[in-house]
Write a structure and sequence with these properties.
heterodimer, A: two-stranded antiparallel sheet, globular, B: two-stranded antiparallel ribbon, 22 helices
Chain lengths: ~500, ~525
């Protein structure tokens, strides 16, 4: 029987912990100020935008400060919260993605022309970032549940932000129902783990010893149930059903945010979770299965999509599978590859969604077959899209290739003799070839096909052009000099 | 900044310049491109002229013997537990690459001249064209596997657009097919490259390295690593080095193309605009042959030797199959495309024989086919630009109307079918001698392979002479009345293209030593790895 901590110790610990949370505090303050501003100040759109930007930048500054000054990991709040270098790295990535997304929100006509304005969305957006920060730092299964719920609720609201029509409401509803079920499953898994081991703390030995003592069947069930909830947020097969619908109807900028940031957070948590669950083969088998099926299903289903965002949804499923492959390895081996891949994927992904939004704003087309001949009108955007798509496929000289190569070489160097790893690698390679087929559909329609009628000149959203060009430039720059990115995230 | 870097990045710089220039200067783009090609040819000729020959400059598996060596630290990526990802910007030339570099420069010049026929979206065309140029030269110069792979893949995207945007009716299908085929092979190759990287260490710094020259030396492999020949690692139950060889071989065999990986070639060649067909046939197929020699055979010599029979067999099948398929074509461009399959089969047969004659012949065949296939495709282009038709049966007696042109056609056809006095004769004779003597020298290839290979020459004479007879001899008769006016004889620009090509085929046929001199010591050095 372990000693229960007394109240005084607990309180001291909490008070001491508060100081570590600079980046989180800033976001909470920003969130509250934005809500109040929206309530009491009229015409506060630009003010709120500036405020949100300031919040993110300050929060990022705190993270950078922490990254430079702290090396060890510490447990805070009586073991609810872990403060570690890797967590800070994941959070920084989230902040970077959020910064781009924030600018993007203000360029998305579906959000800016919303009758209630965009301010509500921004406050939800900040709340979801807070959720992601908490998730990355979770050291306790209850904390995991709370932060996943926080992200989920925010995501539901953002996806359905302008759901006035039946179709949009349907997708939002699907997302909520799936999410609720997934949460319930995960909660069940957590309660099983608590029942089996008597603890919901991830650190320490209690969880590992407890799980290994109760027999393979029970521990496997508990682990799989928890992972199911996590897979839902990652949109890994077989918990991906909500993804295509949600991506298709949600505002493009929201999709762009949701396809990158929560994923980074969940992978960040999975990274922390890995050593505690890698008892027996359960987690490895689950991840092997989820990675293989996600790559296969995501990439093959994407071939048959005509809606660009739906295609990107399946592509996201495929990329999730690709990153998941890394998690069959021990924790110590994967951090660099995971961070690098997620950073590169996010850059390319956001760039693609910005381009799609630009096209939607100017030409009101969302189908790939509607892009015919657009390359003549907006060649700069076309070239950006080509390079970003090439990066997503993983062809040199773009950064996507380096990221892909890092994943391959880590897997080969980990255990090239294992038949499972070889099997995963073969699937990864084959699906890469398949992915080329659908990624190239956009350049194909842009440049190779002739337009049906005369297209008007694009006038709107020149900010998006600038940002897409910037992201494309980064993709090539990090492709030729990957050390630059490594210096940034390391 | 060495000469090789200038050679590689000159086109890229001017490609970016073209992108930055306004559309109103459209007419200048082709002259810029031409000037770049001329400078490249001058540099390549200078290098060829000053190329040092002899055993002290053989290259192959001796890094210090490479010429115009450039070595810069490029990527040092900290990948945590696995140490540092070391990628070097390593360029160099030996006897295997110098000839192909010169050939590339010449073919790019010819292709630029042939690009005069391109009328739409010139800015995009020449920018992509120059990017392709950079990638091609880079492939032949790179000695770091990673760098090689980057240039190798970099060729695909410009080609996809060049075929897809300026190609024929079925261009979309052809371009995506080409892209998917090549990518299929090369992504698997990437796994092998990663495996090699993890197996090979730099003897100087002790880091893992992508250096392909170090990968040729068994002493540089880490004990117990996957591609160490002593560690007997297995992949799916097969020896790892054999699997590695097969994967790399298939990647390049798709490029060559070797039967049964050739089906992208007729489509891509037929749909591509003439200048791109020239580049495809003249250089890209050689990238495949070069890769087989340098990477597949160079890095996995013992696996290659054990599979030599099958390599030779694929070579013979390609020779016969390509020739038979060519016989059956109505479309002149398809015929030429299939003849490429047949002629490149000799390259594989020569390499598989692993004899000095065979390898010299294979290299010679690559260079000779470089000139001749370019000439053949250009000839097809001459007819096609005039009447937009290539069906053999729609033309008859063209010799009466286009006598000068027919003269060039006869030179190209006779040279291609291996008439003594032209380069193809020397090349094919050497490969066949190599294949024939292999049984007694090293016992790798049975004699009947050489005999069947000879049959390919006979079939080659069949389809070429038959075409000559059908299209050029007899009474002048074409399908449509208006073609009679359109079919004018070759103009000055076309003669300017055809003359040097014909001259090169003749010069190499009479004085093959020009090419043999630079490569023989490299070939000998290469063969030492198989002893």
């Amino acid at each position: 029987m372990q000693d229960l901590p007394n109240i005084q110790q607990t309180t001291t610990d909490i008070i001491n912990s508060l100081a570590y949370l600079g980046s989180e505090w800033i976001i909470i303050v920003g969130f509250l100020v934005i809500i109040l501003t929206d309530l009491f100040v009229e015409k506060s759109k630009m003010f709120v935008a500036g405020l949100a930007m300031l919040t993110l930048l300050t929060s990022g500054a705190f993270l950078v400060h922490d990254l430079i000054n702290f090396q060890n990991s510490e447990l805070l709040f009586n073991g609810m919260f872990v403060f570690s270098k890797s967590a800070i790295q994941f959070k920084l990535l989230i902040v970077a993605v959020s910064l781009f997304s924030l600018v993007f929100f203000y360029q998305d006509h579906r959000l800016t022309k919303h009758p209630k304005g965009i301010n509500d969305l921004i406050s939800i957006f900040l709340a979801s970032i807070l959720g992601m920060f908490l998730l990355v730092s979770s050291a306790n299964l209850l904390m995991l549940f709370l932060s996943i719920e926080m992200i989920s609720l925010a995501s539901y609201l953002m996806v359905s932000y302008n759901a006035y029509q039946k179709k949009e409401a349907e997708a939002g509803m699907k997302y909520v129902l799936f999410g609720a079920v997934a949460s319930a499953i995960m909660l069940y898994g957590i309660s099983l783990i608590y029942g089996f081991t008597g603890t919901i703390n991830l650190y320490g030995d209690a969880l590992i010893i407890g799980l290994s003592q109760i027999g393979i069947g029970a521990s496997a069930l508990a682990i799989i149930l928890v992972l199911a909830g996590i897979s839902f947020k990652l949109s890994a097969v077989p918990f991906h059903f909500w993804t295509p619908d949600a991506y298709q109807v949600a505002p493009t900028s929201v999709v762009s945010f949701l396809s990158a940031a929560p994923k980074i957070a969940v992978f960040g948590f999975l990274y922390y979770l890995l050593p505690y669950f890698q008892i027996g083969d359960t987690i490895n088998q689950f991840i092997l299965f989820a990675a293989a099926t996600s790559m296969i299903l995501g990439n093959i289903a994407a071939v048959f999509q005509d809606d660009a965002k739906r295609m990107m949804a399946y592509s996201a499923i495929g990329h999730t599978g690709f990153v998941l492959m890394l998690f069959v390895m021990p924790q110590a081996l994967i951090l660099n590859a995971v961070l690098f891949y997620l950073a590169i994927y996010s850059i390319a992904n956001i760039g693609v969604f910005m381009s799609l939004s630009y096209i939607e704003n100017n030409y009101a087309v969302v189908n790939i077959s509607g892009f015919k001949g657009l390359g003549k009108n907006i060649p700069a955007m076309g070239v950006c899209l080509v390079i970003l798509m090439v990066s997503l496929t993983g062809i040199p000289p773009t950064a996507g290739f380096i990221a892909k190569f890092l994943v391959f070489s880590s897997l080969i160097s980990f255990n090239s003799a294992s038949i499972y790893i070889t099997f995963l690698l073969v699937i990864a390679v084959l699906t890469t070839v398949v992915s080329l087929f659908y990624y190239l559909k956009i350049p194909l329609n842009f440049f190779l096909k002739k337009s049906v009628g005369d297209l008007p000149i694009a006038r709107n959203s020149s900010v998006l052009v600038a940002l897409a060009i910037l992201l494309t430039f980064l993709t090539v720059l990090f492709g030729v000099f990957p050390s630059l990115l490594n210096a940034l995230i390391g | 900044m060495g000469l090789l870097s200038v050679l590689i990045f000159l086109p890229l710089v001017f490609g970016i310049l073209i992108l930055a220039m306004p559309k109103s200067l459209n007419a200048w783009f082709k002259y810029i491109s031409l000037a770049v090609s001329l400078v490249q040819l001058a540099i390549a000729s200078y290098m060829y002229y000053h190329f040092k020959t002899g055993d002290a400059f053989a290259g192959v598996n001796q890094l210090s013997q490479y010429q115009w060596l450039e070595n810069l630290n490029w990527i040092r990526l900290d990948v945590g537990q696995f140490g540092v990802l070391q990628i070097d910007y390593l360029l160099g030339v030996d006897g295997f690459s110098i000839g192909l570099i010169w050939l590339s420069a010449l073919v790019m010049l010819v292709a630029t001249l042939s690009s005069w026929e391109i009328k739409t979206n010139l800015k995009g065309y020449f920018a992509l064209f120059l990017l392709l140029n950079t990638a091609i030269v880079g492939v032949f110069c790179a000695l770091d596997l990673f760098l090689f792979y980057i240039f190798y893949e970099l060729m695909l995207l410009p080609l996809y657009f060049l075929i897809g945007m300026w190609g024929g009716v079925r261009r979309e299908y052809a371009s995506i097919k080409f892209f998917l085929y090549t990518l299929f092979g090369s992504v698997f190759m990437l796994l092998v490259i990663a495996g090699l990287y993890l197996s090979v260490i730099d003897p100087v710094t002790g880091n893992h390295t992508f250096n392909m020259v170090y990968a040729m030396n068994p002493a540089n492999y880490i004990d117990g690593s996957i591609f160490n020949s002593l560690s007997n690692a297995e992949i799916f139950g097969f020896p790892a080095r054999t699997v590695g060889f097969i994967v790399v071989f298939i990647a390049f065999a798709i490029k060559v193309p070797v039967f049964p990986f050739h089906t992208w070639l007729p489509d891509a060649h037929v749909e591509a605009p003439t200048p791109i067909s020239l580049i495809l046939a003249g250089i890209l197929l050689k990238v495949g042959g070069y890769g087989i020699i340098r990477i597949a055979y160079g890095i996995f010599p013992e696996a290659a030797m054990s599979l030599s029979f099958w390599m030779g067999l694929l070579g013979v099948i390609s020779i016969i199959y390509g020739a038979m398929a060519a016989l059956a074509q109505r479309d002149l461009k398809r015929l030429v495309a299939y003849s490429s399959v047949s002629h490149m089969g000799f390259v594989l047969l020569g390499i598989a024989s692993l004899t000095s004659e065979g390898l010299n012949g294979a290299m010679m065949q690559m260079i000779s086919h470089g000139f001749l296939s370019v000439m053949l495709f250009f000839i097809v282009g001459v007819i096609y630009t005039r009447v937009h038709d290539r069906d053999i049966y729609n033309f008859r007696g063209l010799a009466n109307k286009m006598p000068v042109f027919t003269g060039f056609v006869m030179i190209a056809f006779f040279a291609s079918l291996g008439l003594p006095g032209f380069s193809a004769f020397i090349a094919e004779a050497f490969t066949l001698i190599g294949a024939f003597s292999s049984q007694t020298l090293n016992g790798l290839l049975p004699r009947w392979m050489a005999m069947f290979g000879t049959l390919g020459i006979l079939l080659g004479a069949g389809y070429l002479l038959w075409t000559l007879q059908r299209m050029f001899f007899g009474k002048f008769r074409v399908k449509k009345e208006e073609w009679k006016l359109a079919l004018t004889d070759v103009n000055a620009r076309e003669i300017m293209v055809l003359v040097p090509l014909a001259a090169m085929a003749l010069v190499l046929g009479i004085m093959p030593s020009i090419a043999f001199n630079v490569m023989s010591s490299s070939v000998n050095q290469f063969l030492l790895m198989f002893k």
